[in-house]
Specification:
By secondary structure, the protein is an all-alpha fold. Helix content is 84%, strand content 0%.
Length: 254
């Protein structure tokens, strides 16, 4: 029953959302060049099915690459800030200030620095927009580690790396996976931002831009739905990994 609820509840919510969307377009009498309805999307998917398959893969692998880079850099920065108060005080303002900069303004700069390196540009933007929550969550998890554990392990000759692997990492896993769920959606935003702002003929962002240029609203909305599906799929991959590595932290109602 629990498994059926976990599958049935989100499916029912999606169906209700699509029905409400269809009803809203119908009741307002909007033509599809103003607001596409769900019933307009399947013909667009089918007409451009080969492009959807190719571009979805291009968007997905660059997003995953940027996300993996964000995990490596975010965990490393989080470790530095978590174990050192001086580093935390020094780096937090820089990270907050960098994260506050709209990434749409960074895209042209990255594109000019790495001219012609389209894959690298896209991966970098996906990384830059998604590493912040990971770094902060790891930093907070480590900085709130009970000092008694550190003192006992250090008295036994343990290094900071040993403390991290044996005590700190298991403790920070729930916070890490919570941040990773946020980072997944941010990475997709970064990928498509580069594909749209600096089009290079690749990815779903390019297909969306093509629909915008040709005033093909069904195609544009179909791209948005495809992005949502990819985001949901990657999100549930993270949920699956969370159950494997941090399932012990899940609270079940008594």
């Amino acid at each position: 029953m629990n498994a059926l609820q976990k599958v049935g509840a989100p499916v029912a919510a999606i169906v209700l959302f699509l029905l409400a969307w269809e009803w809203l377009v119908w009741v307002n009498g909007w033509p599809n060049y103003k607001m596409a309805s769900p019933s307009d999307l399947w013909p667009a998917f089918w007409r451009f099915r080969e492009l959807f398959a190719e571009y979805a893969w291009q968007t997905l692998w660059r997003t995953i690459a940027g996300l993996m880079l964000a995990v490596v850099v975010g965990v490393a920065l989080g470790m530095v800030m978590g174990f050192s108060r001086i580093a935390r005080d020094a780096l937090y303002p820089l990270l907050v200030g960098f994260n506050a900069i709209p990434k749409a303004t960074v895209v042209p700069v990255i594109a000019l620095i790495f001219i012609g390196q389209h894959d690298l540009n896209t991966i970098l933007i996906a990384f830059m927009i998604s590493f912040f929550p990971i770094a902060v969550s790891v930093s907070i998890g480590l900085s709130t580690l009970e000092p008694e554990y550190r003192d006992i392990l250090r008295s036994l000759g343990a290094s900071n790396m040993t403390i991290f692997w044996k005590i700190a990492l298991p403790k920070t896993l729930p916070e890490f996976f919570g941040a990773l769920k946020v980072a997944v959606t941010l990475a997709f935003i970064g990928t498509n931002l580069m594909e749209i702002v600096e089009p290079h003929g690749k990815g779903l962002g390019h297909l969306f831009d093509s629909g915008k240029i040709n005033a093909d609203y069904p195609l544009m909305f179909a791209v948005l739905i495809a992005l949502a599906v990819l985001g949901i799929a990657l999100f549930y991959v993270v949920v699956f990994l969370e159950k494997i590595f941090a399932g012990w932290a899940e609270r079940t109602p008594g």
